[in-house]
Design brief:
- The longest helix is centred in the first third of the chain and has 29 residues, at 14-42.
- The chain is elongated.
- The protein contains seven helices and 13 strands.
- It folds into two domains: 46-130, Cytochrome Bc1 Complex, Chain D, domain 2 (Orthogonal Bundle); 141-332.
- It is 21% helix and 35% strand.
- Strands 1, 2, 3, 4, 5, 6, 7, 8, 9, 12 and 13 form an eleven-stranded antiparallel β-sheet that branches. A two-stranded antiparallel ribbon has the order 10-11.
- It is α+β, with helices and mostly antiparallel strands and 333 residues long.
- A hairpin with a 7-residue loop joins strand 8 (269-280) and strand 9.
């Protein structure tokens, strides 16, 4: 029986072997290039990301480039004023970086970087931008917890608010308040509250008028972003501007000193406290102590959608006279 012919052996010269090794190494490097680039981007600092993605319009110092450089007439945001930089929480800034200006009602010229930057990079660049406000006396917007119905927040605000309430019992009434809050300096706020009431009186029917106007001031004495805490001292003077006979005012001045405290809780929860006294100038009326607590949680529609913050308030009032019981109330909001 004849044997099968043997298969010839392939032999590689040393130069050919070295060439194949070099080719394999090159192909492996090309395959790993995207991973290496991504790792390099992940290791970039907030400044490096800002310089690469933001400085062309907003300038290397955060003050914004001139119109002649950017080529459009829409003003570019200046990140350096602390009154602008600290007002909103970092989450709102991240939403604009991720989805572009329209997500927070800014111009479409602010592009979206959600596909160009990772979430970690967006957090880094927002933290860097927040650093353009070098004065740490300004409380950050993360400590501006949702407004409760009765409990005064500790954060110094800069806004105008109109509130309304309707009393269905008795003869019926509708109460409105115009609240103007103006922030000045890093920690301070002044306030004007103008109530306007419509009431159905048994004698002469419906009537309306301005109530007792209040003037107030607030100062944040402590705030810490890392712990999520803010503490303020405040005071109001309620003036007898309302008509007492028609039920729109008390007829005497009331001083109201108080403290307000806010605490961030896990999972977007929050706790707020207000405690103080009402001291009437008419000494026929007793001084009152009051304390109010609001606890709630914020829910957002999607990552950057509208936020809903349900809460419940526990209210207590006690006249500082012997034998007078504390009055308690629960207020959902």
């Amino acid at each position: 029986m004849s044997s099968l012919p043997s298969r010839p052996r392939a032999s590689l010269s040393l130069p050919t072997l070295l060439s194949l090794v070099a080719l394999f190494t090159m192909l492996a490097g090309l395959a790993l290039a995207p991973t290496l680039v991504a790792q390099g981007q992940a290791n970039r600092t907030g400044k490096q990301i800002y310089d690469a993605a933001c400085a062309a319009c907003h300038g290397p110092d955060g003050r914004g480039m001139p119109q002649s450089t950017v080529g459009f007439t829409v003003p570019v945001a200046d990140f350096t004023p602390c009154t602008f930089n600290t007002r909103e929480p970092s989450g709102d800034w991240a939403a604009i970086v991720h989805d572009g200006g329209p997500v927070r009602a800014f111009d479409r010229l602010m592009p979206a970087f959600g596909e160009a930057l990772t979430w970690d990079e967006i957090e880094k660049v927002v933290a860097y931008i927040k650093g353009f406000c070098a004065d740490k006396a300004w409380p950050r917007g993360e400590l501006n917890f949702p407004r409760a119905i009765a409990t005064e927040k500790a954060y110094p605000e800069d806004e105008a608010v109109i509130t309304s309430s309707i009393l269905m019992g008795g003869n019926g009434s509708a109460a409105n308040k115009f609240i103007y809050e103006h922030r000045f300096g890093a920690r301070n706020q002044c306030e004007v509250i103008v109530p306007y009431t419509m009431a159905n009186r048994p004698v002469d029917g419906w009537s309306s008028g301005i109530g007792d106007v209040a003037l107030g001031a607030k100062r944040a004495v402590y705030h810490d972003l890392a712990s999520g805490r803010i503490l303020s001292v405040a005071g109001e003077v309620v003036l007898p501007t309302g008509n007492r006979e028609r039920g729109f005012g008390k007829g005497y001045t009331v001083f109201e000193p108080f403290v307000s405290f806010g605490q961030a809780l896990p999972s977007d929860g929050f706790f707020q406290f207000q405690g103080g006294m009402e001291i009437p100038t008419d000494r026929d009326h007793a001084d009152e102590a009051f304390w109010r607590i609001a606890v709630g949680k914020s829910f957002a529609r999607g990552r950057f959608g509208r936020t809903w913050s349900p809460m419940v308030e526990l209210l207590a009032v006690k006249e500082l006279e012997e034998g007078v019981a504390t009055q308690w109330d629960v207020l959902p909001g």
